[in-house]
Structures are given as C-alpha cells and as structure tokens.
Amino acid sequence: MTGVTHQKWWGWGVEGIAFHHQDKPKMAPFVMDKIGIDLSAPGTPPPDFADIDVPAPRLEPALGEALRAAVGPEHVVLDDLDRVVHTYGKGLPDLVRVRRGDLPRVPDAVVYPADEEQVRAVVDAVVAADAVLIPFGGGSNISGSLTPPPGEERPVVSVDLGLMNKVLEIDADAGLARIQAGALGPDIEDQLTARGWTMGHQPDSFRHSTLGGWVATRSSGMQSDKYGDIADITRGLRLVQPGKVVVLRPLPSTSTGPSVREMVLGSEGRLGVITEVWVNVHRLPANREIIAYLYPSWGAALEAMQEISTADAHPSVTRVSDPNETAFSLATQKASKGLGGKLQAGLFEVLRRRGWDLDKACLSYIGYEGDAAHVRAEKAAVGKIVRAHGGLKLGTGPGALYDQKKFDTPYIRDFLLDIGAHGDVSETAAPWSRLREVYQGTVRAAQAAFAELGVQGFIMCHLSHSYHSGACLYFTFAYPPREGVDELDQYWTVKRAIQQSFLDTGATLSHHHGVGTDHAPWLEADISPAGTDVMVGLLRSVDPGRNLNPGTLLPAHREW
Amino acid sequence: MTGVTHQKWWGWGVEGIAFHHQDKPKMAPFVMDKIGIDLSAPGTPPPDFADIDVPAPRLEPALGEALRAAVGPEHVVLDDLDRVVHTYGKGLPDLVRVRRGDLPRVPDAVVYPADEEQVRAVVDAVVAADAVLIPFGGGSNISGSLTPPPGEERPVVSVDLGLMNKVLEIDADAGLARIQAGALGPDIEDQLTARGWTMGHQPDSFRHSTLGGWVATRSSGMQSDKYGDIADITRGLRLVQPGKVVVLRPLPSTSTGPSVREMVLGSEGRLGVITEVWVNVHRLPANREIIAYLYPSWGAALEAMQEISTADAHPSVTRVSDPNETAFSLATQKASKGLGGKLQAGLFEVLRRRGWDLDKACLSYIGYEGDAAHVRAEKAAVGKIVRAHGGLKLGTGPGALYDQKKFDTPYIRDFLLDIGAHGDVSETAAPWSRLREVYQGTVRAAQAAFAELGVQGFIMCHLSHSYHSGACLYFTFAYPPREGVDELDQYWTVKRAIQQSFLDTGATLSHHHGVGTDHAPWLEADISPAGTDVMVGLLRSVDPGRNLNPGTLLPAHREW
Fold it and tell me: Of B10, B206, B158, B156, nearest to B94 (Cα)?
C-alpha cells in the first residue's frame, strides 16, 4: 500500500460521492427539454473493473530494479488498477475510453517517490533506460496530458507525486509558502488555514488536483481576480531534470532574461518533474462574501462585468452565467435551497411585471474580501455598476450556496455518461472587444456541430476571470450521442468545432486547462508557426530523447 | 538624414540639457561632505568628437548592398558619429569608455527600417551574410546589452527602430493599443493622451527608451504598482526572426504551454527583433496625486511600505528613500522649491523637539489615482498606516515636485563624470523577509569596496515597486576614483561587490535593468546552472549561428 488515495478509475472524485438529480425536482424536465434524455430511464452504470482487460506491464527487469532502488520496492506498483488509474485524465474522451476498456497503452509501472532525491533517482533511471516518464498529480487533467502515446514502444513510467503533499515552510514576513508539488487543494488549504493563511487558489478541480499540476497546466481558480492565476501565485520552484535540478528562488519580480519560471509554467511534464513550489499566501480575510446578482440580458451582464474590471473596485470573484447556464443553475437547485421555490416565484413575478424576459436573465456571483469598510466600499461601487446595467442584487443566500457547491460540477460528466449523454467543457479567453463574437461564434459552431451529428445538443457559458483587457469564457456542452456512430467521433466533431471557433474569433485555445494532446492541433494557430518553433526548440533542447511526457503540448506533425 | 534623433554620443539625453548644481545651494557642501569633491573646481568636459578615433566600417559590399536594398540607401548609415552613438548604452562603464575613445568594436553600419517588412529583409540579409545584428531602441541600456563583442570578427549591424514610433491602433473596448517597438516614452504617451489614454509606464529612462527596449529588458516604471511591470502590460507582440515572424495575438491570459511571450520578454535581442507590441492602456485617471510623507527611520518606513502592500489599498506609486537618499533629495532641492527653506527649517525644528533624529528621516512618495471617492479612501487607508509607523504627511507640494523631476536623475551620471566622480546604480528585488538583510549587506559590501579602493564613497537607496511578497531596492552609489589606477577596475570592484551581495542575500541580479553583459556573471547564481542550461538551449535553438546580439544574457563561459 502506498498510502496515496486516487479518484475512481472510471470517473471523477472518490467512490461514494456522485451527482444525483432526485433532490433537484426541476432537473429531469430540464434535461428532457434540452437534450431529450429521460432521467428516469435505467442508465448504464460504469463497468466492473474485473471486466476490463488490462495489458500486462512491459517493464524491463533492469529498469524495474533501478526504480525499486530509487523509491523502495513498496513504492513501485505494477497492479492493473493502479496502472489504469494512471492511464487517463478525466476529460470526456478519457472517461469514454476507460469505460470501454480502451487501453492501447497503459503505464508499465507507477512509482511513488517520497522526496526530491527519490524523484531525481527515478528521472535518472527512466532516462538512462530510454523509457518514458509521465508526472502525475491528482489525475484531474482534461486535455489529454496524462495518457501514454498509443504507439509508444518504450517502457512508460507514471510518477505519482502523491506522497509529496506537505506545506514545508511558511515565510510569514513575506507571505510566501514552500509547498510540495503533490499536495492536493485540500492538503494545502488545511495546512495553511490551520496557521491563519490561504493560497486562495480554487479551480473547479480543487479537491482532486495538485499544486504541481496547477503549475504544469497554468491553472486558474475562481478567486483569481484577487489572488492571481497560478502563474502570478508561483514565485519560485524546483524542477528535476535528468542529472540536475532547476532551482528558482522565490522572488517578487526579476529581470533575468527570458523567464525560466514562465517556461516551467505550462510545461505539462515536458521539461521535467516539479517537486516544490514557492507560492504567495495571504492572511485569511477578515470578511468574505459572495453576492448573487441577476441581469436582464447577457449583453447587459457583459457590459457590467467589463465596467467592474476597469473600475477602482477589486472583487475576488467575478462570474456571470449566460441565460442557458442560468436556467441550468435554477433547474439544478435543491427543492429547499438557493433562491427557494416560493421566493423565486415571487421575485420572478415581480420582474416579469417590470418587463423582464426571464428566459434571458443572467445569474452573476461577485466575491468580496477584506476588512469591513473595504468590503462595504467595494459592494457599493459594484452595486452601482450593476444597477446602471439594469441588474438586481439577489443577496448572499444564493452566493453562499454557490460557494458550497462550487467543486461539485465535475461529477456531472459521469452522471451524464451513466444516462447515455456526453457533457464536457471548453474554455478560452479573449479581449473584451472580441467576447461577444467569441460567444456567438462558439454557440453557433456547437449548434452547427449538433445539427451535423443530428443530435439534440445544449451549450451554456459563464464569464469568469476578468482582466483589464479581457476575460475568460467557459462553455459547457451536452448532447446524447447517436447510436451506431462511434461516440468519440461525435465528441470530436463538437469539440473541434468549438476550439476552431475560438481561434477564428481571436480567442485562445485554452485559458486554464492547458494544451495536452486535445488542444495541441490549435497551437500553431494560437501562437503562430514561428512561436511553435520556439517552443519545439526549447523542449527539444531539454529533452532530445523525448523521454519526458512525449506527445503532449505539440501538434503531432511538430513532434521531432 | 534619417530623421531619427539620438542621445548625446557621450552621455544621457539630448544636447543642451544637463544637470546643474548652481541653483541648488546645498548640493556643493553635500557632495564635499559625502565624496570629498569640490564642485567649484574646474571639471573635465566631455571630449570633442573630432578627437575620437573611430575604426572604419568593415561592411562587406554584398551585405551593404543587401541592406541598402532592404531599407533604402538613405537608411544605411556608415557615419562615424552614428556608429559611435550605437556602440554603447549609458551605464557608467559605457560613458567612461566612450569619453576615453575606447572603441574596440563599433557597429559597421546602422540601419533604420521603416516597417516590419524592412526589418525582415534586414534580419534575413544579416543572417545570410553570417553577420551580427544588434537591435537598438533609445540607447538607454545600462547593463551592457548594446555593445558588440570586442573580438567579433563578423560584420556588425545595429538596427535602429527609431522610424517605427507610431501608435498603430487603439482597441478602446478592450483597453489595448498596438504600438511600434521603436516608439519612445513621449511618442507613446503623446499619441495616447491625445485620445484620452495612458499606458502608465514611466521608467526613469522614459524620455529616451522605447517600447521594444522595455519589453526586451523587462522594464518597470514608477507607477508599476498600478499599471504593472512591462511583462504585465505586454499582451501580444510581433518578433522578427530569420525567415519568419513570431506572432502573439493580444490575450488577457492564456494556457498555451511554456509562455513564448515570457521568452521574448527579457530576450535582449537574442531571439529576434520586436517590431510591435500590444499593450494594456487605461483611460486617463480623473484624479492623480502624489503625496510626500516622512518617516522617523528606515525600519519604520519598510514596515509601513510592507503593510501598505498587503492592505486593501492599491496606490499607483509606492516609494521611500533611505536616510542617505533623503539627505541627497533635500540637498538637491532648488532654493525656492520642494519643502522650501523656511518651511523645512520650521518643520524640522518641530520634529526635533518631538524627538526625531533627522539624520535618520526617510522621505516617501505615494501616488493615488482614480475617482475622487476612491482617492480619498485610499489616502485615508494609507495615512492610517503611515501614522501607525510614526510617519508624517508632508503633502502634495513635494510630491508634485518629485513628479516633475522624476526623469532627470540619469543626467547626474554625466554631471559627476565631468567633475571626476563615478555615479551609477544597481537595483534588485527580494522577498520582504530578506529586504533588511539585502539592504544592510549591500551597503556594507559597497563600503568595503570603497575602503578596499581607498576612496570616499557614498551609497543611497530607495524602495519602489511593491509586490505582495517583496519589493525592489534601488541603490545609487558614487565615489571619486583614485588617480593612477584604472578607473574601470575601480568601478567593477564596487559594482561586483554590490551584485554579489544581492545574490548572497537572496535577491536577484536585477529587478528591471536586465542582464546584458554586466549582470551576466551572476545569472547561474540567480536561476541556477540548470536554469541557465534551459536558457542556453532556448537561445541556441533559435539562433544556432549566434547572429542575434551574441554575448548578452549569458555569462562568457556559457556562450556556445
């Protein structure tokens, strides 16, 4: 036993926790209406692991011996279950393939180093054997960064950082903490809050993703407007490469040429294994509130969000859902929670009388943190902007509910798969001047893809992560794939249409999910062919033998 | 005539503008006291250009022909004066060498492309001829990035971007502007403010440095606490490389792997020639105030600055001088300005009675921007912190004066050289927890170097650019070199001691002046040998022939 717990081999989160609709009375009619699926019909539960045919490990004895010498025999695992857990992330294609037992290439061993010395020994052993090394954090990746290339003939070793989960040091004077890369979100916040600190980084994946994974994929959290994206939060780090360690000391800012820190950020394992990270940490705020607002339209909501982003106010969370996502949120409320049945009915009746078209209403959450006077001033400043755009304050009740439920969303992917539907996400960022076009283009592209497939699809969106010059748009889509046609082909038809629309409208291939293999086909369109050359040159110079997570980041035709 | 104006060949700024002490009655006694130099003694004016022996250009005819074809014959300049202007930056060693006529290697031609097409033609011609290309903006560099390697046998072409000085486009909706890389600070702000916008980037060098230079060296401005360092301000760019152009579209944030944008930032010409940059721009603030404060000690000042940086307030400028720099500021006031003679005397008398040791007082400037209510709230929040640390508000008068004089400092280097003294700067950044040690270590290191040389030296410092986890410390030092010993050897004794102290105390080799050749010896100590390997690999992959500004960024023993 390694002592490291993993997510379900077939889905998100841990055994025993799942998304249910029985306590959400409006959900079944909503799903029937939007994608024509009957939630009361019997679903297809995930398969039994005993029915899965797992290829035997192909670990050369010498490499196995070297790995056992590196981390101890108990930390070199060749079990089928552990190897399958380390084969995929949790994107829709990952889940479809693993439920199918589609396992063309499974890691041949999973190793669990306990410290950086052991990571060094593992990296050196793998490279000496000309094998392949894939770093693994919480396994929450949804862009295909964790899967061995199907045709990889060399041994593949998954390096699970799960034992390296400690906050090693807090520099209280500087507001910095040194934390091991394998620490999950709760590991980090539990250790920090016990001492009065927070890192403030809250991606959807928080419970099942690690600091190293956040750095390796350029993660963002829900509170990034205040705390920054992981690229801002990361002030120093250690990265193990074959025979050496890149050491970047914690610095608030520096002028040391091309930023090696910003090369490690987003490197998805291709430059080495991150072992520890110096991050900004903050004293727990005296006050913290999330307030819900309602706007009469998406256009008004976008205008208000932009105005807030350039105002003197500095909220910690800025999020607004489009009408579809607003309807979804209302339909997935528990009977007794949220806006409440009667309260909501009453409010909506009042709004209707005022001339609102409630099918166009957009639900927004804005977060405030700081001392009482600051929170009051910020709320007043934001409230003024909200009202100027016809918006309405709903209060802290729905905001608190959002705050409690915020990490539950990824479970819905499995819930939909059980009932025979696909659900997945694509997110992007673009300048404010492009956002409407990005939004409309993406919705149109998804609808065209649904039409091409002949399926009843649904796409919804929220804006989050506001910057001076633009924002992130986060799309969620769902549809029931047709029978008789390969379901992954159908998925890629939709996903490709959305990604292509991003690039066609001036947006990026991803704001915070990384490149992986799924988004790599759009890399050249995003950073230009010459920019891709720069990246290829960098990766190749560090890893000429393609031992470090080969196949991720670059489009297939650019792998050397 | 190319139409591009340059700084003096022998010093900072343009002909006719210089630093004087005659209108600053306290300065001569101050300088006599601190470095034993008599300002009334006759100085040594800069040499006559006619006395300078300039090596003839070694431009192969074919390359000359290709360059003339690329930019037009009138934009290929082989004049001695123009070539000398493009030989050095404006650091102390640059000025000493150029005044001496020490010109071991002068560019063989200066070319002035008018647009990106011409830049591409120049880059291709230079690389095809296996010559060397050095991009040139305003020539304000002070870390040795602009000087051809002394032993360079290949032709050297300086590419002056001075004709490319336009704001090409303002995206008012997104708060972005597309600006040519050769635009100087005033070019940019004049074009922006005419339309109600500002970029807010104000380095000391503002009048004589360019956008491309800022990006290539990771510049910071005095208002970076609000507007960000240039790395934050830069949202997209175009970079000409041999045979191609890296195009990074403007994006508020992105998750496209290792950041190519952050590789171009700080690249000092080694990855190509930056031709245009998308930057964040802001509406001119409704109100703008800079307020001066006085603290009873450096310790109290540092504590207050740190508290301000983690408070809910967001000032635009945060700066505080140590007691030496405070004394220097008071000594260089014009008789009728600043705190004023009588007013200051009265104030100081009151403070003395309150128990202040005025030799330990520290002068601070804090800037506020925004709507009236916001400025009022920020001032109240900061004022409370200042008072809690024993500080005193002096008001807007001295703040306004600082704002007017803020770009004049670099002229002092020439003023001191004229009277036979050296003056230069070294700046760094470190976590708050290290700042006292960095400060004390640096002062001690400089004093030890002065003692070793047997000179009467002076070192002063200010803190600027506050971040969550740390700040920049900016040191200025001066001393009269001894006769009979090479004066550059003496300079390097002091400069090396300061830089080594930075690295020994956990600070970086530079916060915003770049690496160049002067700081390159500390690169491995800063980003680790393995981090340096990553950088070497990147540069080598882009420029295997070492045609692009070779010799900068990397320590000599790491050039390939």
Answer: B10
